[in-house]
Specification:
- By secondary structure, the chain is an alpha/beta fold.
- Strands 3-4-2-5-1-6-7-8 form an 8-stranded mixed sheet, with helices on both faces.
- α1 packs across α11 and α5 runs parallel beside α6.
- The radius of gyration is 18 Å and the shape is globular.
- It binds adenosine-5'-triphosphate and magnesium ion.
- Magnesium ion binds next to α1.
Length: 261
């Protein structure tokens, strides 16, 4: 049985969809078979970020309503044969948890990883997206509102689903600001949330972070950090991408000044 992982957050816009898309690509590059599922039904954009929006014919709601087979709705990645997307489009009546669960379980019987992109917050959309998951990654950014909301999500997830494995991914860390003491570090956040950090992802300068990953070279920091995150997920390790390395020492001091010009 494959791993069923929901990627969620308390606060919106912290990078859940970006993490799902980037992590899926990184896992697929490490030879895992991966299906990403858009659990943000109605406000979906995973198909866009995965660059398959022009290939959508059926979506998860059609599968849930028995209008098509799952194999008709999943879309193969244009570049990686072991990476698929199950998009979401139409809205659903509230509460359709069990048919969603059945689809996730069928996918998990085939794929090594099923990554579910959840809406932010604790409403029905989140409950549906997280229902089947045995692991949850809570995405958090180094901002106090995001940390507070992540704390609420972690508390709720551990209360509702005591057997779920919880970890956090700290996204949008700015090495220059952390090095100068102007931004919380991932360790600060981990201590505040008493949660394990599965990955740390730097702020990226790319216009469309997730889509640009397809073309990013091996020296792209965001890509490197995603590869470490994927490796951690596969191997159960907690290696950390060093996002401040560039900004320490004499050259680091210069780069920090340059960044603020
Ligand atoms: N590490 C990063 N560096 C720079 N920009 C980022 C990073 N992570 C995410 N973003 C940008 O932040 C915006 C929000 O990201 P995303 O859509 O992934 O968040 P989300 O949590 O899925 O939002 P929502 O709650 O609305 O579903 C996007 O424009 C994305 O490109
Ligand atoms: Mg999203």
């Amino acid at each position: 049985m494959g791993r069923k992982i929901v990627v969620t957050s308390g606060k919106g816009g912290v990078g859940k969809t970006t993490v799902v898309a980037g992590l899926a690509r990184a896992l697929a590059c490490l030879n895992a078979t991966v299906c990403v599922v858009d659990g943000d039904i109605g406000l979906n954009n995973l198909d866009l970020i995965m660059n398959v929006e022009n290939k959508v014919v059926y979506d998860i709601v059609d599968c849930m309503q028995g209008k098509c087979r799952i194999k008709q709705a999943i879309i193969k990645d244009p570049f990686l044969d072991n990476l698929f997307t199950l998009p979401a489009g139409k809205n659903l009546p509230v509460g359709e948890v069990f048919s969603f669960d059945s689809i996730i379980n069928k996918l998990a019987s085939i794929f090594d990883f099923v990554l579910i992109d959840s809406p932010a917050g604790k409403d029905d959309g989140f409950k549906r997206a997280s229902f089947s998951a045995t692991e949850a990654i809570v995405v958090v950014t180094p901002h106090i509102a995001s940390v507070r909301d992540a704390s609420k999500m972690l508390t709720m997830l551990s209360a509702d689903k005591s057997k779920i494995a919880l970890s956090i991914v700290v996204n949008r860390l700015r090495g220059d600001l952390v090095a100068s003491g102007d931004m919380m570090t991932h360790s600060d956040i981990s201590s505040l949330l008493t949660a394990k950090v599965l990955g740390v992802l730097p702020e990226s300068d790319s216009y469309n972070v997730a889509s640009s990953l397809r073309f990013a070279g091996d020296n792209d920091e965001f890509k490197q950090a995603l590869m470490i995150l994927a490796k951690n997920l596969i191997e159960g390790t907690f290696e950390e991408f060093n996002y401040t390395a560039k900004y320490t020492g004499v050259m680091g001091f210069f780069r920090r000044k340059l960044k603020r010009l």
